[in-house]
Amino acid sequence: MKNQGEGRGLRIGRRLYLYMSGHGFTPRDDQTGLLTANATRMRVGPGFHILGQYNADWFYKAGCFDEIVLFMDCCREIYQVPALNMPYRDLIDEDAVNRVKRFYAFGTKWSRLSREKKIDGVIHGVFTAALLKGLKGAACEPNSGGQITVDSLRNFLYNNMKNFLTPKELTDPDIPKEPDIPNFGSSFVLATVPVPKYPVTIHVPPDLVGKKAEILDGKDFNVVESTTAAPPVWPVSLERGKYLAEVLGDGLRRTTITVSGTGGVDVSF
Amino acid sequence: MSASNPSNQVRLEVRTQDDAAEIYVIDAHFHLAARGLGRSQTFYLDPGVYTVKVRAGSATREEDVILGKGDKELLKEFPALKFASPAPLEDTAKTHEYHMAAASTESRNVRVQAGQGSWIFIFARDWTAPGRPPVSPEGSQHPAAGLTLTDARGNLVANFATQSECDLSQDPWAACNVQVNPGLYRLRLELPSGAILEQTVVASPGGQTQLFLLQRAYGPEPNDRRADLPGASVLLARGYGFDPNRPDMRLVELARLGLTNTRQVLPDNVVQEMLYGKFENPMLGIYGAHLLLLRQKVETEHLRTVVVNLRGLVGTHPDVEALALGLGPGESSYVFEVPPMLRRSWSLVLNASVKRPGLVPLDSLAAQVASRLWGGEPWLLWMTPAPEAPAPAVKGLRKTKEVLEASDLEATLKTQLQLVDQPKKPFTAYGFPRPSVEKALVPDPAARTVKPQLDDDTVNRLVQVLGVPRAKVEDLLEKLAEKKDQNETQGNPA
Which of A256, A259, A260, A269 has the most B C-beta neighbours within 10 Å, making it the best mutation to test the interface with B? Predict the structure, then answer.
């Protein structure tokens, strides 16, 4: 009301972040709810849950922000609830559809369970762990000067959630390996970060030690690192991307290197 | 990505084991370079390091390829991916050999005789990942607990909790083959809360409708697990008998998963087979036709051909008739007393009801359940809430489910009618007249116009927003008008 009185309409700010984590459920396919701490089996109705997309959409439709970002690291099992917690009457800014950009990301597909585990000594949702890595720089667009865009974050999350799982967890069909991120068709820059480099340790086989070795960018095969005499363990730092390591011995020996941004990489030929 | 073959590009051929496999080629900067569908795809790509990712259902596998400068071509082959399916199919993730054997055997034994000419086979089971403890610590629960089959009017045909063959000694399973007259039936699941979840099952002449169900949690407690109706796999066999090794069943399952995830997974060669009647699995045709409709440009003649083929295979089937309505409201004379099996079919019916209000009669089951749909793609499920405990005899406190439903719909309808009455741009983010805000925040009785003369566009919007057929919208409008008249007579605001 104050903003409106000052001629700024309903606009409050540039970007709204909503992050929800905890035990959640899906009452219907377009909504995911976070259960409140005092919810019980018999108390899941209005007052005992918060609907992430409903709230995000409310601000979207009202045009209160230029960008709405919603992250939900919650289970999306289908629960029956007596009624949904949708308390607000819509305020419709008809320009919002064209003006406001959205990015919603869910830790798991509709009707599936989310997953949490100890990562780097702390219990995290797998989605949250990947998200934090991404936002700290791992999700920046290659060759963009460190821009983390909606698209690059989406790509990062789709491709890297699985990197936080053990081989056994990867074979369990009940454990989600990918998030659910609807594509609303408009990208925007979430953050600009110093382009991070990640430690890559290349283990050179004995017969190739002392030979000439190179690391080539996987996109254009330009040389990014080289040594005239490869040591048994060759440490380098590389930006996120795919590379090709080559050593010229009796013949050309090569292997691919994937720097996903989720941590250091060990490579053997 | 390129369809041509400039001299500096490398030919990459990717082979998979599934017609409905999705193939993605991702470049060294993690951008999508190319994509395709099916058992074999050829791409022409600039030299570089790529990741080839293959997806079948929920299963994926990735491998790196190096396309070197000067290379001409590279072949990359992938094995069959073990995706998760409620149907115990060979080479899928959530299955055991004893589940496959039981489903195969029991699908050929009639356990309940309730008619002739068609069969409905239910196979409910649970599955635990190796090394994980059973989900229900008290021991295995009957996987068909609360599950029954009724006819279209709700009369009991089979109780699967008591009439199934079952084995609870390992990951439990329960199976029951019911011989029925061809027609429409309802699969009914009583949830731990007492609520009822239902879906339509169509028994086609001379065929067996096979429903495969894993278990899912319907609440936070371990004993809240029941058969997973939203995730059901439905297959249709000519004659009867389930064969876990049939490759077309695997394709049908992948098509269902594609529809569930809104992914167009059928390649052109499969679509061509559907068009030329070379498929014998009606469910593939039904899923496939809906997947055709996902394409940005739909060839109506293709859809017409599939509908004709399907009618030849299954006769009158609500989902096939719904697909016919996708060609135009006059393309089917079928009346939907009972909802179709698929949600997408129901959307086609709702759209067509704008032009044909009699398509879904007001007193039909389909109209009654339209406001009680539950869950998402692909199945159309409806829920009947648990009976409420007797309420205190205080006027205004007791609300039956019907009253709640009606009030929810009425409230939404009133909001929509207000939108119809409002000017096109009530306010914008950067400036709007104060009265508009007040109008938005404070209900304006003057804006409540009841039962306006609505054009088809507005009716269409109401049908979409409320998710009910036109007959129901008109009924609600009439009831609103009656209430308004009563309130005006009594001097109360509407």
Answer: A256
